RNA sequence: GGCAUUGUGGCCGAGUGGCUAGGCAGAGCUCUGCAAAAGCUUGUACAGCGGUUCGAAUCCGCUCGAUGCCUCCA
């Protein structure tokens, strides 16, 4: 059955600035494009947050029964470092610094990107196209824009004519900018520039002799402009108008604004119905960015090898931390926040594992069907994962009460509870119940189990000196024993 | 300077014109040989100053602060 027929989803559309009822162009099917990474260095945690937000969105669409074509590109053609003529593309620069082929840089960091996302339990997109694999498509779009008169060629480069475009279209409608204001606020620089207007942007740049990444084109050897690849690839795989375009908030202007302009100039149609923007992850209150050095790598968190965190955190805890904030809000990373998330996540997992053991009765004291709908309502309200998680914790309270026989649950509700928990926690939020430490080594588990047994015997004999030695020595090794009604379990920190 | 977003209890972080967010920490309790773990209970916060309203943390204005974009950036 298709849930989307009964669950009505609202999304915040950056284009309108409002939450809108989501209706795909083709019933039951969704086309979604998300701007992927530029693979010139290791993906940092801030990058991951954006992709994780859209991974969650992708997962929810699938859960609702939509057929989704999710396209997330790899930018491997490099972007210009700056707008001046001597701009150098990032990948070429990195290649020169490291004395390797540009495609070697691309390969290295593409692999890193995929490895990290896998650790975070990402679902792979339907298509992951690369910019260099779509040079021909990009050239075709440039030709079309030139034909329509919205671009001009200068010295082997082609620029998009923003003022001309703005005469008949609305440049700035996504970011809420007005061309007049932009012109009025233009900084005075770029003395020797081929561009007619500072607002114009490159569709094709002439490659200087020393430039490594280059392709032949009708305008000579060069490379595509910064915004073109997304237009080319989204159009190719999703059509001239598609449902959702996502990306980080920092891409809204100029990148996405230019995408709209390119698409409208080349084929006349507005390319995207719903623009979704994920907000930034900050650290110490500042945006994470490769360029400023204010960032942390995922592996530095997983290993605990960094200066801001007191310990290591697993990928799923980091994911839970991020899901506790709404994707459109700025989220600040800190040790305390991560610690809080870790404890909360453990609590959730313990409740989940307790469900199976719950004894059922004739009826339930809690309306689990209504509760389940509240979970959906949260997600239907622009993917409100923090509210969803609050509802999950509400259920945790009832699970514990049932466990202690203070409340009752019916067999049917127990099944519903289990299915709902699994669906939201694993399928939608993408979390994993990995007790890394415990599953680490069967031998270790066996040894600890043996020690637990010896300690139990000592305690039964009231030999507390021995039992406390076992407990304290294990604790010193980072193995904590947890005495419960059903016996003793342990966790490794 | 321009555009945009934002300011919630010790920390993180939702939300809404009047009805408990949630997590963590803290406090109390239960359990325990003692602890730990676990569970239960507990907090009336919404930058400041005005205004609209029967009623605003939620709407409007101003002040102050923060962040993002305006050059590549998730």
Automatic annotation (TrEMBL):
Positions annotated to bind Zn(2+): 35, 230, 255, 259
Entries under InterPro entries matching the protein: Cys-tRNA-ligase, Cys-tRNA-synt_Ia_DALR, Cys-tRNA/MSH_ligase, Rossmann-like_a/b/a_fold, tRNA-synt_1_cat_dom, tRNAsynth_Ia_anticodon-bd
Protein name: Cysteine--tRNA ligase
Binding positions for ATP per the UniProt entry: 290
Gene Ontology MF annotations: ATP binding; cysteine-tRNA ligase activity; zinc ion binding
Upper lineage: Bacteria, Pseudomonadati, Bacteroidota, Flavobacteriia, Flavobacteriales
Principal subcellular localisation of the protein: cytoplasm
Cofactor binding summary note: Binds 1 zinc ion per subunit.
Motif 'KMSKS' region, residue numbers: 287-291
Enzyme Commission number(s) from the entry: 6.1.1.16
Gene giving rise to this polypeptide: cysS
Organism per entry: Cellulophaga baltica
Limits of the Cysteinyl-tRNA synthetase class Ia DALR domain: 374-440
Obligatory cofactor(s): Zn(2+)
